[in-house]
Automatic annotation (TrEMBL):
InterPro entries: Abi_system_AbiD/AbiF-like. Pfam families: Abi_2. It comes from uncultured Sulfurovum sp. This is TIORF34 protein.
Amino acid sequence: MNEILINTFISPSRFSKYKTLANYEENLISSKQYYIPLSILEVSLRNAINNHFEKMYGRGWLLHQASFLRNDLVRKIDEAKLKLNARNENINKEKLVAELSFGFWTSLFKVPYAKQMRTYDLKRIFPNLPPKHKELIDRAKLSTRLNHIRAFRNRISHHEKITDKSEFKNIGIEINSILFYFDEDILAFSKRLNHVH
């Protein structure tokens, strides 16, 4: 059975990264434990950014592609609109916010968007950020953390190995810290759901 499972359903090339079937199972179980916190983080991030940007740039900032958006993100918006059209769905801001990738939202923390992600803005997107005298969390630090989480999320989404990866040894702490920056209750909600069997 193990040979059929590996050769037919998992594939030898994918399985080659694991020593045993037990290691493969361990990776699946580890991936499962991150699904809920990653889902909550992604949805919270896109909604928090959108809510703040609507106040700053108007309700149509996304649909009408605000002038501060660079070409790569404008392309992503156009691609999202095409996908909605292909599914015969009305293009509205709610559907567009949900259709855009996690990478779109994390890109807004990169250097070209420094003017849109000043301390004032960060405190509105993440109301529970620690005060500066306790820990300085700026746009650059958030960008690094969010893009590290995105890389981890993509490994899980593509069913890749996450166990025994030293770069992800503190990923749970990183995810929980971002959830905490939104709100203590969001972090508590994520932890509670993650322990329901």
